[in-house]
Write a structure and sequence with these properties.
The structure is a homodimer of 311-residue chains. In chain A, strands 3-2-1-4-5-6-10 form a 7-stranded parallel sheet, with helices on both faces. The first copy, chain A, has a 3-stranded mixed sheet with strand order 7-9-11. Chain A has 2 domains: 188 residues, Rossmann fold (3-Layer(aba) Sandwich), CATH 3.40.50.720; 87 residues, Alpha-Beta Complex (UDP-galactose 4-epimerase, domain 1), CATH 3.90.25.10. Chain A is 41% helix and 17% strand. Chain A has 11 helices and 12 strands. With 311 residues, chain A is α/β, with parallel strands linked by helices. Chain A is globular, with a radius of gyration of 19 Å. At the A-B interface, helix 5 of A face helix 5 of B.
């Protein structure tokens, strides 16, 4: 199968590309920074703007995985850049596909739980209404709607998958408001300190990077006829509190690791996090065979496996 | 107040413009066909494409009422035209406004119950999820999302109002799938025959043209701070069956009028209509003071008043 990955140099993109290359797929990998060099793959380093779309699909890939995005904070800070990258670029891709008669690729779009906005029920159902409260969430919700319409019209065979917060994120601590969810696990595991800016009771929605790769792999083989016209799917995840994260850390690495976490309340971060969804019913995705971790111990184990593999 | 109406020559646009002119507002009326000539108003006959947007708002109207659209059937038949008129044109308007520093007009967008798609609960709640199953509904849903985001960001003071099916539509019978809901009232009232293509048990969601005018008038004075970030509002309406329509006709015009209705089942129309929503809870809009008819007798009475006024 020939698979085009847009955003192939990102955290999920690299892992997904490596996994698909291992299975022998032919890959075209595109990103603004150089994508990984893999067997049987073509790497394209280019800005994924609207004008790049026709060139990207000239080779008529069987499937397209669209991971490229400006993240939430940047889309909020730079209105033009957010709409250009997160809406105009995917729309141009859809239009480029529609302009090629007889070409109906599978298109898997990485959407986000940011399509939803507070206030939330305790457990958000699959059919919760679209209420984004960020420009990023708005752009993701609009692209979902386009993907449903282009699929219904027969121009693509599309689906949008709404990813949980990915945890444990590898790499260095970053300043994203959500960074601490990963920091308080990743740093103490290697003997480094980490700051916790929110109460231990804070609940959020997680899946490991490996689960995210699994979602896209499963979506590639999924018979989309089972989706009907409802082409956006909330992915399964684990609803866990910070306290549950810390207990899992204690079980894996002991009190010494837990002692490396410093509680340093930050009202600004706590306020942002309080508007995020904390728990979902993902009945449809589970019935369709998507799976994620069910305990935080599994999420930590997935991180240790990935770090070991990287060492 | 200076009010710009886009789509001012349409059925709702004409009535709304006349009503606002009567109150002494200064109007700019734009449409592809010549808008009505009213006191203290400027009429612009032009194609409401994306490129027309900056010129339309050069006079910095205090409020903009956006009624212009390609209807559902045409948006389905002509994909490009539908997206150009129903998505690119309103988006260009939003962008033109954003490009004018310090200009934050009220913007009232005519959306539609087509943002929802079957299957439906018996009574659709205000927070039912966006599931359009037409390109028209997709375009309306996307524009709603843009209006919410541009409002949240402070570029406009916007709201989207989702109109029920307008009944009794004046004028001649047309071939729209929904036309019969009006035809079976309007035609017999003037002694002419009408065809009923669906079962008497068919239920649908109605408001009179006068109620629609009232929705926009009320939206003009509404303090949108009461909406928070949820800027799309389902308008109140009347849920009624065809049988209830016919009983109301009988009360108003007698059995002689009812006898002018010929039952001529059309499976194709019945199938289309079966996918349409039939009843809504409109708790939010009602609490905000929007009102519509509560009996079909009132809808017929509104029609008779309008026809009398026109004669």
């Amino acid at each position: 199968m020939h698979i085009l990955i847009l955003g192939a140099a990102g955290m999920i993109g690299r892992k997904l590309a490596a996994s698909l290359a291992e299975d022998g797929h032919r890959l075209t990998l595109a990103d603004v920074v150089p994508p990984p060099d893999l067997p049987n793959s073509t790497a394209l380093t280019l800005d994924l703007t609207a004008s790049a779309a026709p060139g990207l699909i000239a080779g008529r890939p069987d499937a397209i995985i669209h991971l490229a995005a400006i993240v939430s904070g940047e889309a909020e800070a730079d209105f033009d850049k957010g709409y250009a990258t997160n809406l105009d670029a995917p729309r141009a891709l859809l239009e480029a596909i529609r302009a090629m008669p007889g070409y109906v690729p599978k298109l898997i779009f990485a959407s986000s739980i940011a399509v939803f906005g507070a206030p939330f029920p305790a457990k958000i159902p699959d059919d919760f209404f679209l209420t984004p409260r960020t420009s990023y969430g708005t752009q993701k919700a609009i692209t979902e709607l386009l993907i449903s319409d282009y699929s219904r019209r027969g121009f693509i065979d599309g689906l949008s998958i709404r990813l949980p917060t990915i945890c444990v994120r590898p790499g260095k601590p970053n300043l994203a408001a959500s960074g601490f969810f990963s920091n308080i696990i990743r740093e103490p595991l290697v003997g480094k300190p980490a700051v916790l800016p929110v109460p231990d009771t804070t609940r959020h929605w997680f899946a490991s990077p490996q689960s995210a790769v699994g979602f896209f792999r499963h979506a590639l083989t999924l018979d989309t006829a089972r989706l009907g016209d409802r082409r956006a799917l909330g992915m399964p995840g684990l609803s866990a509190t910070v306290a549950e994260e810390i207990e899992a850390l204690r079980r894996v690495a002991g009190q010494k690791a837990v002692d490396l976490i410093t509680r340093q309340p930050d009202e600004k971060i706590a306020k942002i996090v309080s508007t995020w969804p904390a728990d979902f019913e993902t009945t449809r995705a589970s019935a369709l065979g998507f799976v994620a971790e069910t305990t935080f111990d599994q999420i930590i184990a997935a991180h240790l496996v990935a770090e070991g593999a990287a060492a």
